[in-house]
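Sharing a chain and its predicted structure for anyone who wants a worked example. Both blocks are below, sequence first, tokens second.
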Amino acid sequence: MDTRTIESLASSAVNSSLFFWWVATLRCSKDYLWCCQQNGDCLDPRIVKVWNDFGDIFSYECFMHWWQDRGPKLFDSPQEEMKLKDLGFGVVLLDQAEIVKPKLDTIYLAIPKFLNTLQAQTILFEAWQSARVRGEHYTVSAKYQLAKLGLRSMKTIIPAYKSMMLNISVNYSLKTNKLNKWGDFEKGLHLNVSPNQKILDRDNANVRAEKRNTVRNAFRKTLDSFNSLIGNVEVGVFPSKEPVQICERWRPDQQQKLEEAVALGQWQSECWAKREMAYMLPGVEIYQGQDHPHETFQILDHFSSLGTPFLEPKRKMKSYRNHTTE
């Protein structure tokens, strides 16, 4: 297994973690983008602190480049969410509970005595290269900790992100694009935000109207949910939907320039979804051609296809860890 393959596996593991969605959500913050463009000149000390730690996430070519540079310093590796415990040749990555006294910047492996020198060297090199991409291995000392959020609310993170992405794609779509005519009902229907409200042939006019309103409201609620995530991630908390205290952030001259930048399309535009796709999931191909609704749908599907081990019940994850270390 070469270094490139190891980094690909590590990338897949990170992309299947909540840390991936932490950065994806932060990139949806207009204020954080402006803080980056203002080189941290912001009146809100909370967002300045995040900027000092996370840096200009918009200046990196892709998410993994940012992760390699900043991720390990902010989050310990998403090892707790990874399923890769058996590293090969019988070498096992130990859980923290199995280590009497863990040390920072240290990787603990259980190495069988029967390995010959070449096998041991190979697996140790692969583990080391993988660790360099993934980060450290103990979350208790992470500078930024994942907030506690119920499993039910956790399941709304990706649908909320997709709702925001579809909403932007529709709002900034060209008039020639079929999506341009979509309203909240069509958006919600496509994302299946209210599965029980599908309009049936036998539904009369009143029932149809009620279902449409329900779907519209569900879609707006999902968008509001994502805005709550953005409000928290701006101040260094994720995933959380708790109310965030409002704080003045920009001087009048900064606010005016921000509004001018937004008006000029420097924030969101018709290519926003493709830009985020290229950053968060580089190398993944989408339909190439004229402006087409299927392109947006492909992008949404790619984000939907990512692994979500953080949504598995803790009992199942614990059972898996016990099984892999036996």
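Comments welcome. Residues 151-304 form one domain.
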